[in-house]
Amino acid sequence: MSDSTKNQRVADQYRAEKGHTKKFQEREARALQIVKELKKMYPEPKSELYYNTSFQYVCAVAMSAQCTDDRVNLVNRELFKTYRTVNDFADADPAILAQEISSITYYNNKAKHIVKSAQIVRDEFGGRVPKNRKDLMTLPGVASKTANVVTGELFDIWNGIAVDTHVRRFALRFDLTDKKTLDTIEPELMALIPKADWKYVNNGFVLYGRHICKARPHEDCIDHPLTKIWPQALDRWPKSK
Question: N or C terminus of the chain: which is more exposed, having fewer CB within 10 Å?
Fold first, then answer.
């Protein structure tokens, strides 16, 4: 069974259990309005991380954990002049790579993971980043969220909804979930939102959170497109986690 089918079944099961409730139906209607607006604002959901090759993107996503995309892009615009192919990364000395990315968080561990991941991609997947989510998760540091982001960006395969801090924040602000953790929020969002629209959720909320509606409380939020859909969000400012 594919990851996409598996996640669709999870969503269907959740809908079967909760779909009859008033709360679920209200959340579903709100979620559909929100996604409709995100689709209008961001019709081509793409990552803001800088990359030219598939493995460079895997590398960029790994580097972005607990670090801003702006900082990662600043590093990668220079780094990727030297490291272009999977072999370039696989043959790298982790200690040297760590120094080259030392301005980002957890650079030592990230350098080790990147080199090891490149070696696995070279030796076990013929030098091609795997499309399969299960295979991607064999790479060091690649968990479910990262795998969803990579398959979506590189292959337009949306196996689920990658829940990061932005997605979590808006899921809570717009009362789309009662859950608090990233892993438990994902199945609820998948149940509320049709699979065909999963692709708009992560990048849509990420871009909206970076460029329009910041995490800290702000007075002009009433004028923001999504707040106009559900003004009650003005009184909900969940803490980041």
Answer: N
